[in-house]
Design a protein that fits this description.
The structure holds 2 protein chains of 2 kinds.
Chain A: H1 2-28, E1 40-45, H2 56-69, E2 75-80, H3 87-97, E3 102-106, H4 111-120, E4 125-129, E5 143-148, H5 151-164, E6 169-174, H6 180-196, E7 201-206, H7 218-230, E8 235-239, H8 241-253, E9 257-262, H9 265-268, E10 276-282, H10 284-296, E11 303-307, E12 314-316, H11 328-343
Parallel strand pairs in A: 1-2, 1-3, 3-4, 4-5, 5-11, 6-7, 6-8, 8-9, 9-10
Antiparallel strand pairs in A: 10-12
Chain B: H1 3-33, H2 38-51, H3 55-78, H4 86-103, H5 109-138, H6 142-162, H7 198-215, H8 217-227, H9 229-234, H10 239-266, H11 277-287, H12 292-316, H13 322-335, H14 337-343
Classes of the chains: A alpha/beta, B mainly alpha.
Chain lengths: ~350, ~375
């Protein structure tokens, strides 16, 4: 009986401790705790993809949330999802009207609206994710475009592909060649593969200009990937939105290996999880959090902020289901290349404009 | 109060109002389920729609396309035509109008604006007219044909706006048409807001459409066809011609909505310009019970919902998609008036199915 009572007391104590811990964790995440002399209000406006896109909008929002969780920043964050193109200026204005300190906008679709709002509201800071195509140069000093050095994650993905291929033939299916980010991914991929495997043959194709089907022709992507599989390729890099996703799907159907792009496609495109070795990633969350930190810490930089291996702004995603299929030796080689890219002792050989 | 007036009051005012209230209650349930406070959310929705800086003006901006589109769909309803294609007609009207508006130069606004508006209306008339002709000549149901024409118009817009050399502006970061000529822009009514002269056009359009339906020969034919096709035919009305003209006029109003949106708000067109306005408009017309005057409050409600949603999300992080739940619930209640009558214990009223043609107003002989 005595033992039972002791257990009961212990259990009660544990419940109380858990409850306190839970509530404590809840309040400290708010960012508006007493240690903050000023709370910085940060708003995020999505494009029509909305927060649940498991891709650009979602990852950018994670960056804002991470800033909010960081108690040294004193950030209070909110998001507005856009339904139409007319919403962009209006939703940005909502935050400006509410005296927000900073507005983060996701994607090139909000580019024009963001630049216009930045000019009209010089006291508010603006960050555009993955877009820095300013209409006039230099851009206003309260505006920053967060861009990424895509050749580096491409290089890492290529290096891994070069080590993993059994047929010494790898391939890519890419979006438009007129988009610099796509070309940087592809060239990095090719150079990375050639470095780890000088005998590798790299097959690949860019999608021709297809109007509305630019970056959005999975059937074409699937056909091209199948052609490359027929020519002996065993690994495919899909780098071009839905067009690239078509190539990933082909790899899954033909039991080949695929590599995703931009975000961890294990999460954003779970249908192809079984063929996905890794993804060449832009760390949008890190870039967004960095820009917020710059605003809070009064180290604001306007213009273009480039994220690369040095500041952990790019990288490759975890191996997930492929973890057991990639040997420790290969993993070590890839992480060694990542370290060298980070240190700057290794270059991808891709000239960046 | 006579029995007839009492019934009219119930069906035209009480039931729609109760449906709106019931719709908001369903929305409140959804907010509760997702762990937020409905009262806070609705307060923010109201603030975002009316009381915040520029909010009332923005609500009117969002309501303007709903007025034109709602009138268009309601006009079709009166002839018994279910025009699901307002969204597509909006696109075609916008495309046709914007082409004129960025092509013309050095003409006074008094010429350019009406020209663009007329071409936009012609675009919508033509697009809906296709469905009208198909119905009149082959009996193809307008619900099917207008849905199919929607897809064609979305892809047409995408093709024209995204393809080099057609309507795509050179040297832009996002695919869009060139900006319209400055003289073709609808003037801003309140400086510092986006409220444009389209509001005045919308306010003029309501009595015009009412007059058209209630006081003209074509309006009489439209109502007659909607009331009873066989009787209309027996009375010597050309049913086919009436169907084509009604669809065309319905589409012209949708096209007008498109070009007004372009000239007033965006000043250029992208391939995603409408984003659901045309489909919401079916709900607006149902809520208005196909009465042109009823379209005004219904459009204002939908505009307020659409506009207030973003501030609601900012304040309470309730997703702006909640609005769709409210709108859909309102329509369920409007379309099933029996539920509302039962809720309000209005037992004496006769049970009737969803009525889009307003029979009682044609019963002039009784």
């Amino acid at each position: 009986m005595k033992a039972f009572r002791q257990v009961a007391v212990l259990a009660a104590a544990a419940v109380i401790a858990l409850a306190c811990g839970g509530s404590g964790g809840g309040t400290s995440g708010g960012g508006s705790s007493s240690s903050c002399s000023k709370t910085y209000k940060v708003g995020l406006v999505t494009d029509v993809g909305k927060l649940s896109d498991k891709s650009f909008n979602y990852d950018s929002w994670q960056g804002v949330l991470n800033a909010q969780k960081d108690s040294s920043l004193c950030v209070q964050a909110r998001a507005i999802e856009s339904s139409t193109q007319e919403d962009y200026p209006k939703n940005i204005a909502q935050f400006v009207d509410q005296k927000y300190d900073m507005v983060v906008t996701v994607g090139f679709k909000l580019g024009d609206a963001t630049i216009a709002a930045a000019k009209a509201n010089p006291t508010v800071k603006f960050a555009m994710v993955d877009y820095a195509d300013f209409t006039d140069k230099p851009p206003p000093t309260n505006l920053v475009g967060l861009v990424f050095q895509e050749d580096q994650p491409g290089f890492l993905a290529g290096a891994l592909a070069g080590l993993q291929t059994k047929s010494n033939t790898i391939a890519y299916v890419a979006g438009l060649e007129s988009v610099p980010a796509v070309v940087k991914y592809v060239k990095g991929y090719t150079n990375g593969a050639k470095m780890t495997n000088p005998n590798v043959k790299v097959l690949g194709i860019y999608q021709p200009e297809s109007g509305p089907k630019d970056f959005n022709d999975p059937d074409w992507g699937l056909q091209q990937a199948n052609t490359f599989f027929g020519q002996g390729a065993d690994i495919i890099f899909g780098v071009g939105g839905n067009t690239g996703n078509g190539a990933l799907l082909a790899a899954k159907q033909k039991s080949k290996t695929c590599i995703g792009v931009d975000v961890d496609q294990f999460v954003s495109y779970p249908d192809v999880a079984s063929c996905l070795m890794t993804s060449a990633e832009k760390h949008l969350d890190i870039a967004v959090k960095q820009s917020i930190t710059n605003m809070v810490k009064k180290s604001w930089q306007s213009g273009t902020l480039t994220f690369d291996a040095k500041n952990n702004g790019v990288g490759i995603a975890p191996y997930h289901d492929y973890d057991s299929k990639v040997s420790t030796d290969v993993k070590a080689k890839v992480s060694d290349i990542a370290t060298k890219l980070k240190e700057g002792s290794l270059a991808t050989g891709v000239s960046t404009p | 109060m006579s029995r007839r007036w009492r019934q009219l009051l119930i069906s035209a005012v009480v039931v729609p109002l109760a449906s709106v209230v019931a719709g908001f209650l369903v929305g409140a349930l959804a907010i509760l389920v997702t762990g937020s406070d409905p009262i806070q959310a609705y307060s923010a929705l109201f603030a975002g729609a009316f009381t915040n800086h520029n909010a009332a003006a923005e609500t009117l901006v969002s309501s303007i396309p709903y007025v034109f589109l709602g009138l268009g769909v309601a006009l079709g309803f009166r002839a018994g035509l279910f025009n699901i294609g307002a969204e597509g007609q909006f696109y075609v009207g916008a495309l046709a109008g914007v082409f004129v508006a960025f092509s013309v130069h050095r003409l006074p606004g008094i010429v350019e604006v009406p020209l663009a508006l007329l071409v936009g209306m012609a675009g919508g008339f033509f697009w809906a007219g296709i469905a009208g002709v198909l119905k009149a000549t082959t009996g193809a149901h307008e619900v099917i044909t207008t849905i199919m024409l929607n897809y064609i118009s979305f892809l047409l817009a995408s093709f024209l706006v995204n393809t080099k050399g057609l309507l795509l502006a050179p040297n832009v970061s996002t695919p869009r048409t060139p900006d319209v000529d400055p003289a073709a822009v609808l003037v801003t009514l309140i400086p510092g807001s986006r409220l444009h002269a389209g509001l005045l056009l919308a306010l003029i359009a309501v009595p015009i459409v009412w007059f058209l339906i209630e006081r003209t020969t074509i309006g009489f034919r439209i109502r007659a066809v909607g009331f009873n096709i066989d009787a209309a035919r027996t009375a010597g009305i050309s049913v086919r011609r009436t169907i084509v003209i009604t669809m065309g006029l319905s589409g012209a109003l949708a096209g007008l909505a498109g070009i007004v949106q372009v000239l007033g708000v965006n000043k250029h067109m992208t391939d995603t310009v409408a984003a659901g306005y045309g489909f919401d408009a079916i709900a607006v017309a149902l809520l208005a019970r196909s009465n042109p005057w009823g379209v005004l409050p219904a459009a204002l409600l939908f505009g307020a919902l659409r506009n207030g949603a973003s501030f609601m999300q900012l304040e309470t992080q309730v997703s702006s998609d909640l609005i769709s739940i409210i709108q859909a619930s309102v329509i369920v209640f409007v379309a099933a008036p029996v539920i509302v009558r039962w809720l309000l214990r209005l037992r004496e009223a006769p049970v009737q199915t969803l009525q889009i043609t307003q029979r009682e107003e044609v019963e002039t002989t009784s």
